Amino acid sequence: THLTLSSVRPDPRARAAALRAEVDEVGLEIADVFLTSSLELGRLTPTSRVGDDVDELRAIFRDTVELTSALGAPGITLLPGVVDDGLSVDEGVARAAEGLAPLVEMGAERGLGVSVEPHFGSCIETPEATSQLLEQCPGLMITLDPSHFAYVGCTAQQMAPLAPRTRHVQIRPGGPGVMQSKVRDNQIDLRVLFDALHDAGYDGWVACEYVWMQKWGCDEVDNLSETKLLADLLRGLVAEVWS
Q1: Helix 89-109 crosses helix 53-71 at what angle (to 10 degrees)?
Q2: I need a surface site. Which of 55, 58, 74, 177 has the fewest CB within 10 A?
Q3: Where are the domains of the chain?
Q4: What is the pLDDT of residues 84-136, one digit of tens each?
Q5: Based on C-alpha coordinates, what's the Rg of the chain?
């Protein structure tokens, strides 16, 4: 968080060295690098064809690969893009696959995983659309945040088939029409998801992702307390499933 592109792009390796020193000093590890190229969901994404967005995204991603490699992080997550006006979901997915293919190749050349986070408002709002994208873009993985699927009414059983193509997991309690809830109000069957991940051989990170923002009513819980409760819940589930 708060690592800006403007601070990275002039010298990604120097920025990585400084960040690595800060992380090492406090005894942390870097689970993932999440790239946000633009605050506009429709710009500088794999689906954007505005101006020089295609070339600029590739240049940004190339610098992000340098940063991630120097940090020793396992991979990069980015957003998949949106369905532009006048396009069908199928066309949006196809455009995302086309835009992502060279990025996946860049990552693979440096031994880095590349994944997209399916999210509400994107070209892959559902597990079905996500599977379609994965079929069209070999090597691409996903960063699974089940709250976005649950928000549109999808169940854990519908998400489970995505487990073999999941590279990173970030959990936020939620449910149909609820992007973020208290742990006690969670409606996502995490045991079903974790069983599927275990069966798929998942050995990556499982992160807690509470955020504070007005969007989606994500300012209605005590994030600090709920993060502690969620971490305890996830530790218990991981111990049960991966024991």
Answers
A1: 40
A2: 55
A3: 1-119, 145-243
A4: 999 999 999 999 999 999 999 999 999 999 999 999 999 999 999 999 999 99
A5: 18
The residue with tokens 């070339």 is 55
Q: What architecture is domain 1-119? A: Alpha-Beta Barrel (3.20)
pLDDT-derived band at 2, boundaries 50, 70, 90? confident
pLDDT in tens, 155-180: 999 999 999 999 999 999 999 999 99
From the list 177, 184, 171, 170, the residue with the least C-alpha distance to 217 is: 177
Angle, helices 190-199 vs 223-241, to 10°: value is: 40
Mind listing the pLDDT tens digit for each residue in 21-56? 999 999 999 999 999 999 898 999 999 999 999 999
**Torsional class of 195: left (φ above 0), alpha (ψ -120 to 50), beta (otherwise):** alpha
CB 200 within 8 A of CB 169: no
Of 62, 74, 70, whose CA–CA distance to 207 is shortest?
A: 74
